[in-house]
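Researcher: Please translate sequence to structure tokens.
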Amino acid sequence: MRLRYAIYTLALGVLAVHFVLTLIYVSPPNPIKTLTNLPQKYVGRFFYQDWGLFAPNPISMDIQVLVSCLADGYDPTSPLDINRGFLERRYLNGYDRVNRVAANYAYSRITLYRSQMPYTKLCTQTPDHPDCNVFRFTDEERKNAAEEGLRRVASAFCADISKAKSIKYEKAHLWIILSEVPRWSKRHTEGRKESVLDLGVVKLEESRAFGIWRYGGGYE
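Model: Translation complete:
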């Protein structure tokens, strides 16, 4: 009997801790939530939920990733749209999934995590607030992670171009091109607004030529 009661007590204790951490996790920003980060480490890690399906925020822009492959002693390639050709082939052989890789990294580079959004107004009005240090740190992590993903994609891309041109490319220049599409209600009064985010020159990592872009992307 004592063992049974001990098991019941332990189970109730675990459930109580779970519900308390969940309650703190879904609550507005507060000292317990922001200073300990425990709810995020627990709920965000083991019970992550994405509510975008129920509160959609549709993308209002087209995103392109341009790559210019660089090698000492050779002219750089013209900026090439890394997703060119995949849209036409998106229903064949999983090319749509290849197309998403670079596009998703680019979107992550320009878009805040959903967990960061509540802090934008706070940190704009009071940049010295203690919570803004965490916000700036996570924002830098987000950008670095996205740029690292784009660097790896560019490495595979330039490996394909290297094989096609018989040139060993070691670096690449990356750009993200944003073409903002006007909302439906403003389609007759506003045109597209294009902007360029220059990510600079990155060093490529060793990557074998998979032939994805040379054949699937139409880069002969």
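Researcher: Any highlights?
Model: The beta strands are 61-70, 80-81, 171-180, 193-203.
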